[in-house]
Batch of 4 targets.
Target 1
Amino acid sequence: MIVERAVALWKRDRYETYGSVVGTAITFCCMISSVSVTTWALIQMNLHTETVYCSAGTQETGFRVKVLSFILCAIDFITLLGTGFVFAFNVAAIRRKFFDLKSSYQLKENISVIRIILPLSIFQAICHTMFSMTNGIISSFESSFSMVTYRTLFAATYIIPYYTMVAPLLLLYVLNRSLKDRALKLKVLTRHVTNENDVYFTAYSQMWNNRRASNKC
């Protein structure tokens, strides 16, 4: 989603003309890359080998799984940095007095989307980073512990159940916040309406983010 919003920022003057092409292309790339890296990490896995919980780390796949875990940690950090950069560029661009209506809409939409998804994105990045790093570190020292100690440490740092419990609650919060924001925008647009044209021109003046345009309206 951050990549899609970055494209919307970059091509904001004609982004709407792309339709669903950008979203479809990004989704396709994500699916292909996910299948590719998973296949690379687990292609040598022996399905008859006993594993800890649902872990894919075995003697055959341990090294590649650790590499994949640290790569995913890096992707999480890059995603958070990308979110910050996109938000900062949007805030800087939206403060300009003169730009076209399409650009203004995309900039405001970017800020709205980022504010909505940011709590879930941060929580997911933190949980996945903690899980990947602890899993990678503990797996690296597996030979230094007894089986009981290793399984105890693995269970103590296995935070996926907590993520599974909290993530739906955060998602519900995100959806409720989105609905409240939409209701608030509609309420602001229809406040103190003297005639039907006021709603139309008020929306346009806010999109232009331009005092002169607002005065003309």
Target 2
Amino acid sequence: MSESSKAVHDTEYVGIGHYTNQFFRRASRNGLEFTLMVVGQSGLGKSTFIDSLFQTDLISSSAKYIPSAEKIRERKFNIFEDNTKLQLTIVDTPAFGDMINNCYCWRPIVDYIDKMNSNYLKDESDINRKTKIPDNRVHLCLYFISPNGHGMKELDIKFLSKLHDKVNVIPVIAKADTLTTIELERLKSAILFELDVNDINVYHFPSYADKGSYQTKSNNPIPYAVICSNLTVTKEGGKKIRAREYPWGVVEIENLTHNDFQLLKDDILKKHLIDLIEDTANVHYENYRFTQLGKLLTNHTEVPNDIMTHVQRELDRHEEKFKSKTASMERIFNDKVREREQLLELKKGKVEEFELKYELILAEKMKFLQNLSLEVNKMRLAYNLRGEGLSDKSSMG
């Protein structure tokens, strides 16, 4: 059968043109869940970056703090803008790379990412599956690189090599205002070279996916060089901006001629937030899911023959659980019925006792009435006899 394409005329309205409106209404109704992880050594301005990214003091606010796995901190926020809700989770890694021995400092982060994927897989595989599964998977990891040096450290390469196939990871050069333009370009080139040599696949936003178009700064943003600040400066005209003040001038963090902060912010929040969520679900999570199901199939202690045997065991287990609950409910019901029957029997005995008591009283009353009636009859008979005697005497006289 041959396939053909046909343009739909204005009069042949189908309705797929409202797809974007449907997606917008769904996002407005359900909101979006997004988890952002920031990793890097202390003093690189990760907290300031988050505050600058969302234009508020999120980290220093009184938002809910949730302790989780060791060396991992979670902070959850609800952000509302133009009738759209974003449930944001910020995952911080305090003291990362600050130990004397940093050989395995990446392990808690990998374990955390795997744990979030495992929780989602468990909810997804549950028989009583929820309509909307909470998504706590890590959608983006920003790795902050120190500007002091001629490239990445061994720790940076080790971390990125362990995480690049588990999460969308983007390298970020912190405190870019400490470098001259030439130094920054050299550092970027060195980082790109080391990423290529070590086969580290960092995340490329769809708009930059064509590597052949990496010609200018706007087309070659990775690694992003950012400057962050919590200081607000008032420009001429009264406009307030976040900036860093120096004796020789002011560095505007949202000025593309000064750094890549605004470019990174737009790429994450304005242009590709949905792409990050979908790439996490369709690439990294699916890879994790495939690996776990493969382990399940090869683990003969859990699945002796095939996946159907495992499914049958799960069904049998749930059936036994259902039978146990049914028997328990029947036992409770029978106990309640027995208690009610005993209560009714007790009440019935009291009623019968009451009836017997009043039957005896009634019998005594009836006997009393009968005796009283006999007495009345005797008195009436005696009265009548006395009356007849008096009448006889009077007739004789």
Target 3
Amino acid sequence: MVAKPNQKQCLLLIWQAYAKQNLSTFKIPEVALEDPEMTEYITSLISHLLTSVRSNMKQKIANHIVSKSHISVLAKSLAPGGGYEMTTAHWAHIVFLRDSMIIFESVVEECKRRGGQKKLGAQQSAPAAPDHTDENEEEQAENDSKVNSKNAEERIWTSNKYWEYINMVLRELRAEACAAETTPVACAKYMEAFFTRVLQADMRNHPGSSSHPAVPAFDKVTVQWQKAIMTGLIW
């Protein structure tokens, strides 16, 4: 039985495929892909960078939840080298990440609470007297099977599963868009409208302050490598 790739491995495969199609963007010589040792090194480097970037993003998003600063301030802090051209479309996606983290943290706390209650209940419950008849053993086996099936469906979220949670929410959003619309273009507009509403609500709640003033957004992206990445990878 072949194991399914995990979320990080899937992301790595997407980046590898994109990098192969855009060698000049990443300044990767074509001959490097013909060398197994060099390919392995590049793959390892991409994996390390992805882990570092995701960890850095998560920490900055968490910090800005506390400071409640304008979304443009968070967006600027996430820009590579501070020189990324951030449009309001970028802002909307980053707001989604920030709002989702707030919800995710409450989900994690609820999972902890339920886990604590179950543990306490198990400790307080007296074990039932054993019954060794074949009939009772078969009944117990059937009940255990039902419980295991239920537990498999019940997801326990922990703080290190934030990006996995984001992927789940995005999958549900795409499914909702496809159910509501009949064409790919209409689905894309449905998604865009969702992110627009999220951004508008956030800007009303976090208008900026003298200590964290808003940073103007770019009207459009003009840097070619950034446009290529947005076209090929952005969700």
Target 4
Amino acid sequence: MIIPEDLIPTIEIGKKYLWKSSPIELLCPTCRVNEGNSMGDFTFECIVLSPTKDFICNSCNVKRSSPEGWYNVRALDNGELGSVPYTQLEPLSKEIEEEI
């Protein structure tokens, strides 16, 4: 029997992942703007820094706690920072990880 908790992968802080961005629904509860589509589609190699604690809406500037399962990451090629849901993080293959 599969338990729902077994379906959610463990994301390791300090480990390198492939960030495969895709549009998601992330509605601000205050102004109802969907901020999930702002990044577009891209793929980055990144390192996970920490769980995300708070979001600040880009439209109304209201601070709110983040949903569970989001992580702060840094792109390895340009140092750009972002917050990512675990569903967009994939472990790097051993060959790619050794090259970095």
